[in-house]
Amino acid sequence: MKGIKSSRMKAIDENCEHLGLKGLQLMENAGAAIAHEVRERVQKGNVLIVAGRGNNGGDAFVAARHLAYDPAITINIALIGSASQIRSEDAINNYGLLEHCRINALIEITDPQKLKEMGWLDNADIIVDALLGTGITGKLKETEATIIDLINDSNVPVIAVDVPSGFDPDGGEFERSVRADVTLTFHRMKKGLVSGHAKEYTSEVKVINIGVCEDAEKYVGEGDINAFRTRHGDSHKGQHGKILIIGGGPYSGAPALTAMAALRAGADIVTVAAPANVADIIASFSPNIIVKALSSNILCKEDMGTITKLIESHDVVVIGMGLGRAEQTKDTVSKIIPLCTKVVADADALYGIDLPVPKGIEMIITPHAGEYNALGGNGKEDTLEFSKRNNVTILLKGREDHISNGKRIAINRNGNPGMTVGGTGDVLAGIAGALFATACKMDAACGAAYINGAAGDLAFERMGSGLLATDIIDMITEVMK
Ligand SMILES: NC(=O)C1=CN([C@@H]2O[C@H](COP(=O)(O)OP(=O)(O)OC[C@H]3O[C@@H](n4cnc5c(N)ncnc54)[C@H](O)[C@@H]3O)[C@@H](O)[C@H]2O)[C@@H](O)CC1
Ligand SMILES: [K+]
């Protein structure tokens, strides 16, 4: 069984919220499942709940409320930290309800020694480990690190909530982790839980259905763009992407639209490499775009030296808009692709790429139905297989966009008929390029499809069916706020 990353789980949770399924409802189901597991293992005795200040702890507060009905069970809760530090509303809500339940004792622990002195670890028949879940970030801090040691030293059976605390849910390095007797993970297996030595820490993993609605996963939603909305305070110039756009020649507007869309979607630096005849025109659209003039009136092999250097100094290449399909342009495209590490191929470039894409090159392609057919695609049902056999992530544009990385398919259903106007595909490619600088192919393609459609919907609200591609660009920041 393959697992999902914690960022994907977060996106699914947020999509649920937007569909009207509250986090509180999911937490209730998670907590009920924990209580059920406790009762399966302990019919009479002492349950120690070790809770953190996040939603992982919130799940355990729900479990405590469910268990409190059973007079044979004594519940002690150790909240690591203070109640005033609980940040999420859902966890605060469930913490508050404990006041009205038959809990033996609840203490706030800031010094791990206090937990030891209470004797709860020695008396417990089972420990519910709800200290840290998928929200763990960075190096393990104190008090949490010592609490994990105390749990492991206790030799009491442990039920881990979602993931053993301290464990990296995405399968990366971690300093120390609770060693559980069973792990209850919610909705889907997490990537880290199936990695390397995971079993040493998780023991048996049970995947618990908490009632996530199918559409939260099937369709791209707000949850898929939230990660692109936040920036850390210590960000520096260039960190959010240097994007190289290779386009133009027969046309000049297309690469300019792509460039402006990439900037609005958060790219720090955007350079357009364009044939000499259109370079000045593209530069005249906006002082925000850096333009590098190529040698001729179309992209050709004489430009390879210039382009090779430009690729080296950029994070993502977006290629194809307005290039035309001259034979030497197509040949040059096929020579450029192997030099790229991350590339978005759109429009005319789709006639120059060689499939399957060699290993080591990460490519997103953004064809419409006609281009997809020309690439050997066989209807939208084939997108998953197409991606797998060609080593690409495909964003197949249509009334509903079908996006696949060869492992899963996501569908984007926003957007409107006003978006059939020219240039909207160029905008989409620019957004995808910008997002790809900081995300994986699938997240970038899903995010770009959603942002483009949502910006198009806002433009439609204001302009009606006379909307222009430039109106969509103007709405990108509104969507990403
Ligand atoms: N709708 C949702 O979001 C749902 C979330 N669920 C639960 O929520 C969990 C995720 O919740 P959160 O995102 O609040 O995160 P967590 O509860 O996993 O962790 C957040 C807390 O950990 C602390 N922390 C983070 N990194 C640390 C480190 N390196 N050392 C010490 N302390 C650290 C933070 O200060 C914060 O208090 C899941 O694992 C799952 O158990 C479930 O309730 C199902 C629904
Ligand atoms: K946990």
TrEMBL record:
Q: Record-annotated residues binding K(+)?
A: 56, 129, 165
Any note on cofactor binding?
Binds 1 potassium ion per subunit.
Sites where the protein binds AMP: 425
The YjeF C-terminal domain is annotated at 220-481
Q: Name one GO biological process term.
A: metabolite repair
Q: Where is the YjeF N-terminal domain?
A: 9-218
Q: Required co-factor?
A: Mg(2+); K(+)
Give the residues the record marks as binding (6S)-NADPHX. 55-59, 133-139, 162, 254, 322, 368, 426
Q: Which InterPro entries match?
A: CARKD (IPR000631), Nnr (IPR030677), Ribokinase-like (IPR029056), YjeF_N_dom (IPR004443), YjeF_N_dom_sf (IPR036652)
EC number(s) in its UniProt entry?
A: 4.2.1.136, 5.1.99.6
The superkingdom listed in its UniProt entry is Archaea
Which GO molecular function entries does the Swiss-Prot or TrEMBL record give? ADP-dependent NAD(P)H-hydrate dehydratase activity; ATP binding; metal ion binding; NAD(P)HX epimerase activity
Q: Which reaction does it catalyse?
A: (6S)-NADPHX + ADP = AMP + phosphate + NADPH + H(+); (6S)-NADHX + ADP = AMP + phosphate + NADH + H(+); (6R)-NADHX = (6S)-NADHX; (6R)-NADPHX = (6S)-NADPHX
> What keywords would UniProt list here?
ATP-binding, Isomerase, Lyase, Metal-binding, Multifunctional enzyme, NAD, NADP, Nucleotide-binding, Potassium
**What Pfam families has UniProt attached to this entry?**
Carb_kinase, YjeF_N
* Subunit details: Homotetramer.
- NCBIfam families cross-referenced by the UniProt entry: yjeF_cterm, yjeF_nterm
Q: Which family does it belong to?
A: In the C-terminal section; belongs to the NnrD/CARKD family. In the N-terminal section; belongs to the NnrE/AIBP family.
Q: Describe the function of this protein.
A: Bifunctional enzyme that catalyzes the epimerization of the S- and R-forms of NAD(P)HX and the dehydration of the S-form of NAD(P)HX at the expense of ADP, which is converted to AMP. This allows the repair of both epimers of NAD(P)HX, a damaged form of NAD(P)H that is a result of enzymatic or heat-dependent hydration.
Q: What is this protein called?
A: Bifunctional NAD(P)H-hydrate repair enzyme
